[in-house]
Amino acid sequence: MGRKRAKHRKPVGTMNVILALLGVFLLAFIVAMIVIFVRQGSTPDILIGGVFTLCGTECGIMGWIKNHKEKAQTRKWELEDRERSNRDG
């Protein structure tokens, strides 16, 4: 009755940490730009464009890496399945 169930958790992936940090950064950046706009009446458009371009590029690269890893894993599983079916059949 007093036993605790052992929890099996996956370790947090590097990409998940990067995405979380990126989200926190963008939220803080947007708030800072709103404050600047309220105080100054304008915002640094080139900085905003650069930040969002950089963040978009980072997310695109991480998506490409994830896609590449999944394709490689799928190919590995397909080869294992072929070898297994050749041995069995």
Task: Describe the overall structure.
With 89 residues, the protein is mainly α. Helices cover 80% and strands 0% of the residues. The protein contains 2 helices and no strands. The chain has helices at residues 14-40, 45-88. α1 runs antiparallel to α2. The protein starts with 13 loop residues before the first helix and ends with a helix. The model has no long low-confidence stretch (mean pLDDT 89).
What ranges have pLDDT less than 50 throughout 5 or more consecutive residues? none
Distance between the termini: 50 Å
- Tally of DSSP β-strands: 0
Q: Profile the largest sheet.
A: none
Instruction: Report the sheet-strand fraction.
Output: under 5%
Radius of gyration, whole Å: 23 Å
Which geometry do the CA atoms define? elongated
Helix-strand topology string? HH
Chain-averaged pLDDT:
89
Q: How much helix is in the residues?
A: over 70%
Q: Count of DSSP helices?
A: 2
Structural class: mainly alpha
Give a quick set of tags describing it:
mainly alpha
Could you outline the blueprint of secondary structure elements for this entry?
Blueprint: H1 14-40, H2 45-88
Concise summary:
The chain is mainly α.
